[in-house]
Amino acid sequence: MKIDILHAGYCTAPEHIAIHGGRWKTIHFPAMFALFRHPQFGAMLFDTGYSYRFFDETKKFPKRLYRWMTPVHLKEEDLVVNQLATFNLQPKDITHVFISHFHADHIGSLPDLNCSRYVYLPHAFSGLRHLPPEEDMKHAFLRGLIPSDFDSRSQEVDITKPILLSEEYAPFKTGYDLLGDQSLIGVELPGHAYGQMGVFARDDDGKVFFFVADAAWLKRSIVENRPPHKIADMLFPDPVAYRQTLGQLQTYYLTHPDTHVIPSHCEETIQTLTTKAH
Fold it and tell me: pTM for this one?
């Protein structure tokens, strides 16, 4: 399987919010997505980054607060559909989109991928589905990003059938075989959002990539086990679980030095891997 690390736009925010003891300097948080090209299942994505729909959905108050709190920068060439074209792919070629969670910077291009199967942990969306619209902002959720035929193309992960993971994945003990061939292993990473899913993937060279979504915003948080500023706890459904997950990620990172551990918004990590991918 070939793996390419890409990003569709970025937002800005002070570093000290993302990591305890960080600088007051405003930094970039790229909206990472990954392209998997599988010999059997074809081209697939992990998340989708931003799209112009983000701006459409945040024109009016109170959703405009989302745009003010995390200003988004997006160019035409950043759009998922345009980046796919550089790989000679069209949206219809994407067979699966693995959704880590349903925050707007991870699902912005779902409506563009109108032939894809959407794969996610069921509780990542079940609670959002029935939210009163006035509560969307509390969950960083923009319902206008959900395609009208979402349900007919959804493939919820069967959480009643976890697999036991080998020591290769320790301290993570159980996961989900997302394609049935163990090329993509999903694991739940609680704390940041309900049903947040990380994914282990292995490329043609045997290199392991661990996409950890927003279980940490910066790689340094994992390396040093440094959570975000306490104010960020207001954004998390379970701050205690967030810190437990971060501790597991640090343990994994320290015991698996050859694995690429990839938070979705760490500019340094993504720039390094994007360079390698191309």
Answer: 0.97
